[in-house]
Specification:
Blueprint: H1 8-27, H2 30-46, H3 48-59, H4 68-90, E1 93-95, E2 102-110, E3 113-117, H5 123-129, H6 131-137, E4 140-144, H7 153-161, H8 164-167, E5 170-172, H9 177-186, E6 189-193, H10 196-209, E7 213-216, E8 221-225, H11 231-243, E9 253-259, H12 263-274, H13 295-310, E10 314-317, E11 322-324, E12 327-329, E13 333-336, H14 343-346, E14 353-359, H15 362-369, E15 377-381, H16 385-392, E16 399-402, E17 424-425, H17 433-436, E18 439-447
Parallel strand pairs: 3-4, 3-6, 4-5, 6-7, 8-9, 8-15, 9-14, 13-14, 15-16
Antiparallel strand pairs: 1-2, 2-18, 7-17, 10-13, 11-12
The structure holds nicotinamide-adenine-dinucleotide.
Length: 458
Amino acid sequence: MHVPALDRAGVIGVAACLRAAQPAWAARSVEERAAVLLEWADRIVAEGSAIAAAEAVDMGISRDRPPIAQIAAGSIRGWCASAPSVIAAARVSGASSTMPGVRYQAELVPYALVGAITPWNMPLMMSLIDIVPALLAGSAVMVKPSEIAPRFIAPLQNTIAAVPALAEVLAYITGDGATGAAIVDEVDVICFTGSIATGKRVAARAAERMVPAYLELGGKDPAIVAASADVEHAAARVLAGATANTGQLCFSIERVYVDAAIYPDFMAALRNLAETVPLAHPQPDSTGLGPFISAEQGRIVERQIADAVAKGARVESGGDLLNLDGGLYMRPTILSGVTHDMAVVQEETFGPVIPVMSFDTIDEAVARANDSEFGLSAAVFAGTEDEAAAIARRLHAGTISLQDTCLNLARSRDVASNPFGNSGLGATRSGPMAITRFMRSVAILAPAERPTKLTHSH
Ligand code: NAD
């Protein structure tokens, strides 16, 4: 689908309109801003089937799975419920602990214009994840979803137009990398979700402009399975975590380290389960594995498997790129004999591929899990949650699921998560900071009592 790309002049024009409207938006109370966003959430639900149908076409997934508009609306409502207390908690005041004669208070000033640039996977949710907290903070927002999955933008724009107070301060714009680069040049804060390569370019430009860049980038998530783990359960959850959305999630499981003592049992369980996973063809259904987003993505995965096999890996299950009526599919693909010099361990795969390696000691498992430029998230399975947690504390990852995989979305408003390595940079989108990172805190200081005379002496 071709969508028009807004050029630099267009971006500058949209930015000017948003900046003009932002002071009135910031002057509203947070409760008033939340009321506007709650109205928007209802409109999104009302437009749900059109949005879901658009995503289904772009992503090659069933339009009934998951109920994307309801999930999005639920997330907006949750942030609206949290925002007043989060902002109140940040508005601190009191007597200075270092200069007891001085009183302080924090004045919270939202950044006027926030930009968000988002990727093609989970396009609606990714486009909302930073902008809802930014709007609640009092910023105006321009967001550019990926040019690869843009169909949802048109129905979403209907929902924004239906809420005039929101339409003044929120603009969805279409375009490619050049449009994205123009956005980075215009905003006061940039939120970027996407690949490490593009994230580095965005961060470099933001640094030149001295504006904050909040980056959420790729992952190569490891799962560690200790000898004491429930093998069947671990295999089932690893399979689910590696194949959801055909592996095209930033927090997919992409590497598995299994204690040598249970390696044969784990592999047998994983193979048995993998062979029961149907392909979502000819009709996308609610349980099958869907096609890759693009032929290019399928070829990347195929190349990584070929590289692994050339270096000595064995395909235990799946492995072939299947062209079914023009869509490229792959069954869950299990690899053994994998080593860390292979692209399938070094690079993000974004496919339903599960390289499984064995280890002899937990020290070795931790060292290998941490041997990566990525550090987005991870998973640990062990006999008890305490044992799993002890391993988790040694991992370089921002979010770690115990006895399960991919619990990442549960963080939401409750707990912050800072990725390690090249997987991210800057204040995070989860926990209370998700909102407060869009506000400067200005420290207003005054003597507790008015000085009566000049006190300096020499
Ligand atoms: P991408 O980096 O190719 O593109 C992301 C966005 O950046 C797109 O909107 C694109 O148009 C824009 N862009 C391209 N060049 C630009 C430039 N020079 N300046 C500004 N913007 C530019 O990523 P993608 O292929 O769309 O998405 C997949 C990647 O996103 C994977 O690495 C995945 O792990 C990551 N991701 C991360 C998270 C997370 O929360 N950490 C979530 C989803 C996806």
